Amino acid sequence: MIFSEDRIFIIVCSKATTAPFNLNDMPGSAGRMDLVCRFIAQSIFISHGVRKNSAAIAILKGEPDPPKAILVRGSEVRYMAPDERNVGGLIRKALSLKVDEKWLRSTPGIYVARKGLENVLSELKSAGYSIYYLREDGEDIRTLNFTGKLAFVLGDHIGLSEEDERILEKFSSGTVSLSPLSLQADQCVVIVHYELDRRDCRA
Amino acid sequence: MIFSEDRIFIIVCSKATTAPFNLNDMPGSAGRMDLVCRFIAQSIFISHGVRKNSAAIAILKGEPDPPKAILVRGSEVRYMAPDERNVGGLIRKALSLKVDEKWLRSTPGIYVARKGLENVLSELKSAGYSIYYLREDGEDIRTLNFTGKLAFVLGDHIGLSEEDERILEKFSSGTVSLSPLSLQADQCVVIVHYELDRRDCRA
Q1: Searching chain A, which residue's CA lies closest to the CA of residue B51?
Q2: Are the beta carbons of B48 and A24 separated by less than 8 Å?
C-alpha cells in the first residue's frame, strides 16, 4: 500500500467483531461497531463530499478472528454514505473476505488485512508519517506544530490496552490532547480535522 | 417548557419525515433522518456520558404532517445510546404521538410538538437565549464573545430556506462561522461544543 494522505486516523477497537455481523445490532453483538462506523465517517466526510486527503484505519480486536484492520481511503472511496448503516454494510463486506497480511481491496477505497497495531504503525512509520497518540493528558493541540504527513491513534470507549500503549510508544512522536472533556473517538476526529483545517486547508 | 440549558442546538430539516419511519432506511424514505440522529447525538453525548447542560431541537418539515419539532434534553434523557438506530427509534416513537403546540413528553427527556422555526425561536428568545446562525460566511467563532444562554441554528444538507432565514433574522444575535470548509451539521455541533468547552467547561 502506498500511503500518501496528509492525515490518517487509526482507532483500536478492543471488542469490535472480526466476522460479518448484524447491521441491526452494531452496538451490541458486533462489539460497538457503531463507534467504528462513526469514526470512519468523520475521518472521511465533509458536507457534500469526501476528504480525498484523509484515510481511516480501524484495528478490530474482537472475536472470532482477530486482529483485522480495515482501511478506508478518501481518495478512492465510492458508494459510501455517512450513515452508520451504510458504512457498516461496507465493513461487513470486507470482513467476509479471506485475509492475509497484505491489504486486500474489498470495495472501492476499502481494504482489509490481517494486521494489528504494531504492523499498521510500522507501515505508516516507513511511509514517513509522524504518529501521535490522542489522549486526555497529552500536550494541547493548539500548542503543537505539525509538519508532513500525520497519523493520529485513538482508543475506543475502553481505551488502549497497556500492551498497545507500549507498542505505540515505540512509534509515537507525541501525545496530543484536545479538550478539557473526555470525548468520543469520532468527536476527536472532527476536532483534529478542524484544528488542522484552520491552519492549512489542504485535506 | 422551562429551558435552562446553557447550550441549545436547533436544526431545520427540510425533508425529514413527520411520521413513524423505517429504521433501516433513514437516509432514504425517512428524508435524511440519519443526519438528524447524528445531530442529536453530538449535541448530547460525550465519552461515557451526557451533557446535562445541553439540548437539541430538530424541526422536521417533511411529509406527511409538517411541521413537528423534536426536543431532546441532556438533563433528562435516559435509555439513549449514541448510535443512529437508537436515536432514530426514540424519534420514531415521538412521531407516533398526536401533537399540538405544547411540548408533549414521549420518553424521558424527549418531547414533540407542532412547532416550526418561528415558534421555537420565539420560545427560546422569551427564555433569554442569544440566538446565533451557523453559516459559512459568518463571523469567526474565535473572535466572538458569548455570554449567557446560547442557541445555535443550523441548516441540514440543503440549508435554510429563504423564508426560514427571514424568520431567523428577526431573532438572531449574529451569524457565526467555524471552519474554512463546509461541514456537516453534526460536525458543526462538535466544534461549537469544543470551542465553548475550551473557554468554559460548564456543559
Answers
A1: A181
A2: no
Among candidates A47, A180, A198 on the partner chain, residue whose Cβ is nearest the Cβ of B183: A47
pLDDT digits (tens, 9 = 90+) for A38-92: 999 999 999 989 999 999 999 999 999 999 999 999 999 998 999 999 999 999 9
Chain B hits for A157, Cβ within 8 Å:
47-48
Give the residue from A178, A137, A180, A144 showing the smallest Cα distance to A160.
Answer: A137
Buried b (16+ CB within 10 A) or exposed e, A92-106: bebbeeebeeebbeb
Neighbours of B56 (CB within 10 A): 26
Q: How many domains does chain B have?
A: 1
Grid cell for residue B173: 444575535
Closest CA to A156 of A33, A65, A42, A72: A33
Domain presence at residue A2: no
Cα separation, A16 vs B6, in Å, equals: 35
Smallest CA–CA distance, residue B100 to chain A, in Å, is: 31
The pTM is what? 0.97
How many angstroms separate the CA atoms of A72 and A57, rounded? 6
Contact residues on chain A for B88, CB-CB shorter than 8 A: none
Domain hosting residue A27, numbered range = 7-202
Asked if B148 and B128 count as a contact pair (C-beta separation under 8 A), the reply is yes
Q: Do A184 and B84 touch (CB under 8 A)?
A: no
Instruction: Answer yes or no: are the C-beta atoms of A26 and A84 closer than 8 Å.
Output: yes
| Residue A101 domain-assigned (yes or no) | yes
What ipTM was estimated for this complex?
0.96
